[in-house]
Amino acid sequence: MKTNYTELLPPAWEKTSLIFTALGDEHRQRMLLLFELDERLNAGQIAQASTLARTTVSHHLKILRQAEVLLSEKIGKEVWFWINKPLLETTFGNVIRYLHEGENHD
Prior knowledge:
Order of helices and strands: HHEHHEEH
Shape: elongated
Structural class: alpha+beta
CATH architecture: Orthogonal Bundle
Low-confidence stretches: none
């Protein structure tokens, strides 16, 4: 058993923890599922497709953006969001590598 992680996450896992926290909410997961491949959506479109109030959608978008799960760009008065695929691919790839490393120790 590895006991050196019982109190603090290793620095390499801090970003992963933020991402998992952001993805741990069902509403935020549903927001991500709204996006087609490489699609950009604005907050209004996301709010329209959601059962949540626009202010609540904005709160969830902020969390996803802070964790960098979503990237954004302001064009005129609209903020456009898209999924940060490279970050998620790296994050989940790291988790899979970690799981496979454990297989080597059995």
